[in-house]
Model the fold of this input.
Amino acid sequence: MCSEYDMTVAGEYRVKVTYSGTELYYNIIVTDRQIVSIEMDPAPSKTEYNQGDEFDPAGGKIKITFEGDVIEYVDITEGMCSGYDMNVPGGYTVKVNYNGSEFEYTIVVNAVPDEPDNPDEPTTPDEPTTPD
Done:
């Protein structure tokens, strides 16, 4: 019975109501949902890496609470994250940015031991040499 409005987009609309061939119109205003709180909940599950690993924020979410206790979750993506270098060992505070709100969590990048130059060559202890 009602048409010519979009409840998902803020703005002023003239709603058309049709009933038994009769049309009437009235105006409505659709406002943006008001955010009550925004937080990281939960933080990404992987917090320990080896040097050279791919960064993975899987499991992390941004929890947005709107008026009326409506809750929406947004997955944390790599594009939201900064402040780390997966090629340099150490502890990092990863910054998560979502629409201007910033959150932090800590990761550790562990050093990977150097590989021998020729891992296929067996290593044997030095043998004593005897004079000829």
